[in-house]
Amino acid sequence: MSVNVSSGINMKFLYAGIAIALLISVLAPFLASPDPDGLESAAGGVVDEKTLSELEGAEPFVESPMPDYSIEGQGKMGEVIAIVAGTLLVLGISFALGKAAKK
Amino acid sequence: MHIPDSFIPMSQAIIYWLIALPFVFLSLKWARKELDDMKVPILAALAAGIFAIQALNIPIGMGTSGHMVGATLVAIIFGSPMAGVLVLTLVLLVQGFVFGDGGITTMGANILNMGVISGFIGYYTFAALRNKAGIKGASFIGAWFGLFMSAIVCAVQMSIAGTFPLMAGLATMGLYHLIIGFVGEGLITAVVITAIEKSRPDLLDSSLTNTKGVGV
């Protein structure tokens, strides 16, 4: 029955993983740096102002429901909800895909 | 390093999709062959954790921030860069479609950079150094180098797209991601791999934890 015992331990790993992921999700809106990321920073440094405002003003190809990990008008709490929802969505999709793919 | 739609013209964005898609299919093939009841929960927990930690940008100075990518971490745990490609593809799909982080047209380029290039270079650098540098050192250097090289490739793509000048793009992208890779990627990957090796060595792919060599 060693297989059952190990898979039980792996479910504990899953729950611990989920707990850590959710903890980070809740804290991220308060801890994350507001500074632009490496690519945006580089763009700000190497692209002339006219092109930069064109790049930044361009509409995305597809409108996303929660742009920039936020919910309009909901402030920090909206960000927490957005990131927690994203974490659970990724969890669900990868678990379902894994179950479907496994031999 | 998520490239928005506007940064790459459509014709070039399609080419990056065409390069990335075979890797996505190979990663699904990997999943069919390798995943079992033991590994599915680990994959799901890692994917969720990587999505969450990518939302946590850390400041690196110069008014710039960065976050972990995680492909090398996943690749080391599963003993295959294909695992990193699979997890990053899933994370990027949700980020792109739900949160507008990274464009939909540029998602092929983002999968290529963050999943394929950072995962493959990170994993094989780790594998090459494991016996000499130990698991901790090799995972640090592998993750750091994988992220750095994906930023270099991204700068080249930006230059081909006509968005960045080549040399200035290489210099700034290189410098920022040298630091992001050091703090955000190398350190976190080494800490997580070391923690798993200490507490649950059976979770790591056996060929990589066996320091005497592969296939023993």
TrEMBL record, chain A:
Residues 12-102 form the PDGLE domain. It is found in: Cell membrane. It holds the Pfam family PDGLE. One of its GO terms (cellular component) is plasma membrane. Keywords: Cell membrane, Membrane, Transmembrane, Transmembrane helix. The chain crosses the membrane at residues 12-32, 80-98. Its main location: membrane. This is PDGLE domain-containing protein. It comes from Methanolobus mangrovi.
TrEMBL record, chain B:
The keyword Cell membrane applies. Gene3D superfamilies: 1.10.1760.20. It is found in: Cell membrane. One of its GO terms (cellular component) is plasma membrane. It is a multi-pass membrane protein. It comes from the Archaea. One of its GO terms (biological process) is transition metal ion transport. The chain crosses the membrane at residues 7-28, 40-60, 72-99, 111-129, 141-168, 174-196. Signal peptide: none annotated. Its main location: membrane. InterPro entries: CbiM/NikMN. The keyword Disulfide bond does not apply. Keywords: Cell membrane, Membrane, Transmembrane, Transmembrane helix, Transport. This is Cobalt transporter CbiM. The lineage of its organism: Archaea, Methanobacteriati, Methanobacteriota, Stenosarchaea group, Methanomicrobia. The gene is cbiM.
